[in-house]
Amino acid sequence: MATNEELIGREDINDLEAILAVSNTDRDETIHAIADNAEAIFTWDYEKGQRPALNRLYEKAKVSMWNGETDLPWDTDVDQEKVVAENAMASGGFGDDIDVSGTPMEHWDERTWLQFGVESQNWMLSQFMHGEQGALVCTAKIVETVPWIDAKYYASTQVMDEARHVEVFAKYLDTKLSGHYPINVHLRTLLDDIVEDSRWDMTYLGMQIMVEGLALAAFGFMHQMTTEPLLKQLLRYVMSDEARHVAFGVLSLKEYYAELSDAEMLERQQFAFEAAVRMRDRFLQQEVWERMGVDVRTMIKLQLEHGGDKNEDPFQQLLFSKIVPNCKKLGLLDRNAGWLRTKFGEMGVIQFEDWVDTGEEYDALSLDALAAEQAGGAEVA
Ligand SMILES: [Fe+2]
Ligand SMILES: [Fe+2]
Fold first, then answer.
1. Within 13 A of 161's CA, how many CA atoms are on the CB side?
2. Cα–ligand 2 centroid distance for 245 (angstroms)
3. CB distance 227 to 79 below 8 Å
4. Which of 201, 187, 245, 169 is nearest to 22 (CA)?
5. Which residues are within 8 A (CB) of 224 and not within 5 positions of it... i.e. 6 or more apart?
6. How far is the CA of 34 from the centre of ligand 2 (A)?
7. What averages of pLDDT result for each successive group of 10 residues across the chain (381 residues)?
């Protein structure tokens, strides 16, 4: 069995020095090239609907397209500081969820907390935007590499969805917020690993199951929290697409994984664990601490210790609430004597295993369901 050292470059998941040792050395690059190492696959078997679940998803996607320019209320005035302050109030006030005594934050005044909230939002939405471009590239790769015609068809609709997502996050950052951040190095490393892998199913596992599973949970959390109507609607629209994307991953891999040997499954389990750790690391938002002029080492240490040795930060944990049940549905938790179950236990996220998986959730999150909800709400009002 591979050790943590071999998989993620450190034995202890919470090894502070190892996390900080990875840093972004090329912040000013505008082009980032990575070899995708895969064969482009043609299929001459054009029989549509051989995989009925994927065919249904494709038909659903065709009629669920929206236009990022015209379907969102871009004329909304956004006062970012006011929104940040309101969101902080809604969650109990600045700094109330974490004990800051003895840290650089202890002496922050209201103004500095506000600036921190603004930077955190700029950072978070920048990472979402970069992640969306990762999805765009990965899904274009799936169009090339997956051998099934129904999956090629579906993936092509996802390419369009992801272009729209990059577009709306970029527009929101440019016109409503106050600055971009470059891609976080842990996120970039993960996207590089996913794109570099030659095996077509690994693109799905890394992107549709892990990155998009996390994004769906994070968008849902932010959608619930934010009081800003444009961002709320933007996130809800993106979520309606993301739920289909995660379903695409679950439905495709379920069939493929049923045929894999234990040794092949172990490679997938290890890849899922590695991806989970990288995503956890990226949410430590080290670039924000740098910009705030506080010691990054102190702050990351504080975050890692927050909630005890299992990092029981409720937001951090909730990020895994879609990933874990989907991994379970795919057999990734239990194969090889529960290897991934043990790892997710060590990360403090295994408690989500029986939450709803995302194979079918896309109907509940669709824009039709949203319209019905809103019509129902209007009747009541
Ligand atoms: Fe997306
Ligand atoms: Fe997506």
1. 26
2. 5
3. no
4. 187
5. none
6. 21
7. 87 85 74 94 98 97 97 98 88 67 85 94 96 98 98 98 98 97 93 96 96 94 93 97 95 95 97 93 89 89 68 74 94 97 93 85 90 74 35
Pick the ligand that lies closest to the CA of residue 245: 2
Ligand 1 centroid to 99 CA: how many Å?
Answer: 34
Tell me the CA–centroid distance for residue 171 and ligand 2, in Å. 17
Give distance in angstroms: CA of 132 to centre of ligand 1: 5
- How many A from CA of 250 to the centre of ligand 1? 16
Using DSSP, state whether 277 is helix, strand or coil. Answer: helix
Collect residues with CB below 5 Å from ion ligand 2: 135, 212, 242, 245
Cβ–Cβ under 8 Å, residues 281 and 10: no
CB atoms under 10 Å from CB of 163, counted, come to 17
H or E stretch including 299? helix 296-305
Angle made by CA atoms 36, 37, 42, in degrees to the nearest 5 = 95
CA of 290 to the centre of ligand 2 (A): 30
Q: Which ligand is nearest to the CA of 155?
A: 2
Ligand positioned closest to the Cα atom of 243 = 2
Neighbour count for residue 273 (Cβ, 10 Å): 25
Contact indicator for 361, 243 with CB cutoff of 8 Å: yes
Task: Tell me if 200 sits within 8 A of 142, measured CB to CB.
Answer: yes
- Nearest partner of 2 among 298, 340, 364, 358, judged by Cα: 340
- What burial class does residue 294 get, using C-beta atoms within 10 Å of its C-beta: 0-12 exposed, 13-18 middle, 19+ buried? middle
Residue 221 φ then ψ, to 5°: -65, -45
Locate all alpha helices (DSSP H) within 204-295, ordered by sequence: 212-225, 229-257, 262-282, 286-291
**Model pLDDT, residue 378:** 54
> What local confidence, expressed as pLDDT, does residue 14 receive?
84
